[in-house]
Amino acid sequence: MKVSKWSEKLFGTPLFEPLVSFSYLFPLLYIVVFLIIPVLAMLAIAFSHEGHFSLYWFKSILTSSYYVQFPPQGDFAIKTVTATGETVYLIRGIDFGVVINSLVVAALVTLLASLMGTIFAFIMARYEFKGKNFFRIALFIPLLVTPFVNAYVIKKMFLDTGLINYIFYELLHILPFRIKIDGLAGVVLAQAMTYYPIVYLNAYASFINIDPTLEEQAENLGSKGFHLFRTVTFPLALPGIAAGATLVFIFSLEDLAAPIVFQGDPLAKKLMSYQIFSKFLYGLGERSPEIAALSIIMLTLAVLAFLGIRKYVSLRQYAMLSKGGRWKPRVSKPKPWQAAIIYVVLLPLLLLTIFPQIGVILLAFSKQWSVTVMPQGFTTEYVKQMLFNPDVRRYIINSLMYSAAAVVLIVLLSVTSSYATSRFKGVLTPVLESLVIIPIAVPGIVVAMGYFYFFSQVFPNTPLDPTNIFSFNPAFVLILAYSIRRLPFSARSVYAGLQQVHVSLEEASMNLGASRWKTVTGILLPLISLNVFGGAMLSFVYSMSETSVGITLGSLNMQYAPITAFMKDIMMSAAGSAQLAAALGVLLITVQILSIVLVNIITKQRYAFIGLT
Hints:
Layout: H1 2-11, H2 18-46, E1 48-49, E2 52-53, H3 56-62, E3 77-81, E4 87-91, H4 98-126, H5 132-138, H6 149-157, H7 163-171, E5 178-181, H8 183-208, H9 212-220, H10 225-254, H11 257-261, H12 272-282, H13 289-314, H14 336-364, H15 381-388, H16 390-423, H17 428-437, H18 444-458, H19 475-485, H20 487-499, H21 503-511, H22 516-527, H23 529-544, H24 548-552, H25 563-572, H26 578-603
Parallel strand pairs: 4-5
Antiparallel strand pairs: 1-2, 3-4
Helix pairs in contact: 2-13, 2-16, 2-17, 2-18, 4-8, 4-10, 6-8, 6-14, 8-10, 10-13, 12-13, 13-18, 14-26, 15-26, 16-17, 16-19, 16-20, 16-23, 20-23, 21-22, 23-26, 25-26
């Protein structure tokens, strides 16, 4: 009797069943051991000074002018005159110190990405115009992840001899002078161009799910135009927009690719992600309290942003009443002035944001790209090198193996956690729900540092100890990191599938004598198999392109490094080859496109690349 009450309170079922217990305890313990405890290990180091508990490192960081600087230093733009007499303005940003710089950059990226994503989403959801299918396809292109190479192409575009100056200064004569964007401004630009489709996907889903009768009622009461959008449409779409904006803020805060590419300007180095990464590389082998403290500050900012947006949205009412059924979204033809904005403003902006991916492909097949506007020459040398050079192919195989192994864990974690939280309501249910989604708010560099401290303490002087750089094998650590980092994407897909399967089907099966295991494996899993497959493919793609963990822990032993660590090395080394990195970027693009097509064909529905609305 006591066991029955204990089981019902803890798991939500009066009978103690091994499958239900496992569905709760396996993902719960896995996340605690491989996420919470590593963060706590890092926390313990951050609060230690000379063997005692202390706030020394946090005070040192937050009182240092290098990390927090008021008033800010430097000029936002610097004017120079070339030997030919042309004026060039270098736009690089202002230095507020490392911590404030990171917040300012993340805030600006979030603002720009939210603005672009919301505008594109509203246009695509509410207007029917010629070329809409091109817009629909093109808006997904920036989501094709090509670590480092994408930012490299953006940097090339905004050089004083780049594509932007060629079009707007030399051809159209719109700009009265040349511009060059570098430093923090370059990081903001690269991240905004990369992340805005995340807001677009979430906002688009919100706009098409708005009950049109609400807007019609407002119009009948005299509201129209921007007032209607501001008071009715935008508030109803805000949960989706806020979800996308939160992800952009966290992704910007943790991003390493753009700061590394723009590190030629010292100002681009003054970001938390770059500081943690660089101090980790140069201080290898020591458990640096300063790195741990800086990582905790970054984690705190990311989690506060995540929880703040969720709290803000939960405090407001966004519910819609309808008579049932699925309504048809309001779609109309744009007025002449609206069509002019679409074709004259938004189309060039869209082409601008998809050029980095096009540039990656051009660079992969080019002989060089130095001071010219576009890559020069044609060659397949780098693609052949990628395919047939065993030293290069090794990194591709490493990433495929690590990602595949991580996906196996992710599927098991997703199915068990989603089954437990969707079918049973015990004390552990809200805890498990929160733990499954919280990895979204944990920056990858924080996970990497946490694993460094955790494994060096738990497995000292073994191949799992990252401080033993000569014997360390990062494979196991990377697989664990991938499984934690990419779990929320698959878990949401599986949970959505379970919500569509009525529990009465399982009850009928068990009433007819089938065990819970037989019911789950014979009835439930086949019904949600497409959701499992879609989530698994999504997690696989993102694991392949994982940057933060790969270039930190993976780089400690390049023999076992993933593809992103190799791309970083060849991009940044003195004798590096941007073309070879671009060829690897084309491979990643191909894998992502094939995954999307495969998911769409098999599931016969469109899976958003960021399914977080």
